[in-house]
Design a protein that fits this description.
The complex is a heterodimer of chains A (346) and B (56). Chain A is α+β, with helices and mostly antiparallel strands and 346 residues long. Chain A contains 9 helices and 14 strands. Chain B is an alpha+beta fold and 56 residues long. Classes of the chains: A alpha+beta (346), B alpha+beta (56).
Chain lengths: 346, 56
């Protein structure tokens, strides 16, 4: 299949034209299938919040490559290229240009760096809104789960969800959604949801149900893109959010928990750093002043013991707490429980 | 494409790249200059297969 394509490997975002190619920049691996005229047929590489690789396989990629060749041939008979836009290479983002002007050497612009830089520019220009965080929403936000191989096939529908109300049932095939003219992958569905305005209350969907092709609309509730902190925790941008706990470290494994007498299902993490560097050092100072030390084992934060990981704890703080909010940290130190109190730093 | 320690590249992503070394894909010419590849695709009326991956 690859022989039908002109193949490109991009390992640095510096020269990528952000007015031409956009995908979920938080991913560690992504594929774009497109026409030379700028029309993007499909995106591939999307993930589940708790599983980076569930939707990645050679077989699903091969299926996509094969199916898209036919789509490309049909498109070439009646091309409809997008309007030409001024190229906007990632390296020209103002935040990156300021870093370069300040003497910082940028060996490589990573994908997630694009998000960081675009958010920072939007923040400085006062056009950033907190809901802008919720990029590339999971299909769960509309109430569907998708097949990992044939990624446009619905494997489950949440009762009373927008998908259920639109008549979508298990086994149906999503054909198009919102701006995405042809859906074949998880990433295509996420792109359509990403492009739908946050305030959109209706999104057109076309799907095949048995032999029937159905056109319907998804009815979306206010705030439909917002996801639980656990679902956002994998995204690198969370580290920039405020408030933040000011420390971090790995979760303990089952053996380590057992040794300390901690229930297997309870959260426990070892503090191996306080944020005592850079422009966010005030966060580390705040929690250090509360008495937290490297080596402490955190077993509860703000009364909660159900975090799946430290990134989950961090994201929960960032998305649901307020700067200055008083919280208690319960730690195990030298076999004793110690309770520390501080106000969440900005 | 992150190399952040909390966002390490996935195993399957790495395997996919390893898959590119499989005979069918290894024989494929991989461009690194997108602009040049785009011109070739336009000439051949061929679609573009673009992968994004940090290899550092």
């Amino acid at each position: 299949m690859a022989a039908d394509y002109v193949c490109v490997r991009v390992t640095d975002m510096s020269k990528v034209d952000l007015n031409l190619i956009r995908f979920d920049f938080d991913l560690t691996f992504a594929v774009v299938l497109m026409n030379a005229d700028g029309t993007i047929y499909h995106r591939y590489g999307g993930r589940l919040p708790d599983d980076a690789s569930a939707f990645l396989s050679m077989s699903s990629l091969a299926r996509l490559l094969r199916d898209t060749v036919g789509e490309h041939r049909a498109y070439e008979k009646a091309p409809a290229p997008p309007a030409a836009r001024t190229p906007r290479p990632a390296i020209e983002l103002p935040v990156l240009q300021r870093k370069i002007a300040g003497g910082q050497r940028l060996d490589c612009v990573h994908c997630h760096t694009v998000n960081d830089a675009e958010y920072a520019d939007a923040f400085l220009e006062k056009r950033w809104q907190r809901d802008d965080l919720y990029v590339f929403p999971d299909p769960e936000r509309i109430g569907v789960s998708l097949d990992r191989e044939e990624q446009r096939r619905v494997t489950a529908v949440t009762p009373d969800s927008p998908a259920a109300k639109a008549g979508i049932v298990r086994g149906d095939v999503l054909l198009s959604l919102g701006e995405q003219r042809s859906t074949r992958t998880l990433s295509d569905v996420q792109w359509a949801l990403h492009r739908a305005p946050f305030g959109a209350n209706r999104l057109p969907v076309r799907f095949r149900s048995g032999k029937l092709e159905v056109e319907a609309e998804l009815e979306l509730a206010d705030g439909w893109k917002r996801c639980p902190p656990a679902d956002y925790a994998w995204r690198p941008y969370k580290w920039n959010l405020s408030p933040a706990p000011g420390f971090g470290g790995p979760a303990l494994d089952a053996a380590a928990k057992k040794e300390l007498g901690i229930a297997a299902e309870d959260f426990a993490m070892k503090v191996n750093y306080l944020v005592d560097w850079g422009e966010r050092a005030h966060r580390g100072r705040a929690v250090k002043a509360a008495g937290l030390r490297k080596g402490d084992v955190v077993v509860a934060f703000a009364g909660r013991r159900d975090f799946a990981s430290f990134p989950h704890l961090h994201t929960w703080v960032a998305l649901t707490r307020r700067v200055g909010e008083p919280v208690e940290i319960e730690v195990l130190r030298d076999g004793k429980v110690v309770t520390l109190r501080y106000e969440l730093p900005e | 494409m992150s190399t952040h320690p909390f966002h390490a590249p996935s195993l399957v992503g790495a395997l996919l790249l390893a898959g590119f070394a499989a005979p069918a894909l290894a024989q494929t010419e991989w461009h690194t200059d997108f602009a040049a590849a785009r011109s070739i695709a336009a000439e051949r009326h061929a679609p573009l297969f673009v992968t994004f991956r940090c290899e550092r």
